[in-house]
Every structure is written in C-alpha cells, then in structure tokens.
Amino acid sequence: MDFLQELNKHADKAQLLKDVALQIEKDLNRAGIKTEWTDEEIADSRRIIENLREILHTLYETDRAKLSAIMYSVDLSEREISRQLNRPNAMEMPEELAILILKRVLQKVVLRKYYKRLG
C-alpha cells in the first residue's frame, strides 16, 4: 500500500501515524461524523484504514453529501474524487478512497511539521 510505504519513510512513524489519525478524526467530525477510535486503533495503520473504509462504505451507501464533504475537507483533487466515485467496481472504492485520504492527510501533517520547525 502506498500509504504504508510513505509512512515508513519517516523516522517517527508512531507519532506521525497518531497525528494522521487525529487529523482524520477532526476532518470526519467537521463533516458531522463522530468517531471514538481507541489508542490501540490509532496506533495501528491497518485498523485506521479499516475503520475509515467502513465509514466511507457506509457514507457511499447512505449519505453521499457527507462523503463529498469529507473528500473536500481532506482536499482531494477533483480528478481523484471523480475517479473513485465512478469506479466500475464500487466495492473497491471505499478502500482505495481510504488510502487516498490517508496519503493526503499524511502529506498535510508532514508539511505542517516541516513548516513548524522552520518557524
């Protein structure tokens, strides 16, 4: 998975993963989706992917407006959003979208840390 490969490039993977999970929780809460992930879930990248995949699958089936709100909140490109929502196999969409969201949030967290160090 691209997200896990990208995460493994960083020295403090555990803290970075926690920061990514907390940012995703904020983005979900902003879209009106309450999460109560445990510390164990936040520390496990595969559980984060699975939790996010389940949320995205439910929203795809029940509330596409909230799904769109999450994608815009995370700042996915229009092209990626369109590509995911128009997949021939809709069953793959939630996991692929979860990974895209995680990759984008990871980028934002890394950039935020970089610029914070600069100062």
Structure in words:
This protein has one domain (2-6, 13-113). The chain has seven helices and no strands. It has helices at residues 2-8, 13-30, 39-42, 45-62, 64-74, 78-85, 93-118. The longest helix has 26 residues, at 93-118. The model has no long low-confidence stretch (mean pLDDT 86).
Salient structural properties:
119 residues; mainly alpha
Give the topology string: H per helix, E per strand: HHHHHHH
Number of helices: 7
Q: What is the terminal separation in angstroms?
A: 33 Å
Task: Give the helix/strand class.
Answer: mainly alpha
Largest sheet: none
Whole-number mean pLDDT: 86
Helix content: over 70%
Rg over C-alpha atoms, rounded to the nearest angstrom: 14 Å
- Please mark out the parts with pLDDT under 50 across 5 or more consecutive residues, or reply none: none
The total of beta strands comes to 0
- What is the total number of structural domains? 1
Give the DSSP E fraction (strand runs of 2 or more residues): under 5%
Inertia-based shape: globular
How are the secondary structure elements laid out?
Blueprint: H1 2-8, H2 13-30, H3 39-42, H4 45-62, H5 64-74, H6 78-85, H7 93-118
Helix pairs in contact: 1-7, 2-7, 4-5, 4-7, 6-7
Q: What is the compact description of this entry?
A:
This protein has 119 residues and is mostly helical. Helices cover 77% and strands 0% of the residues.
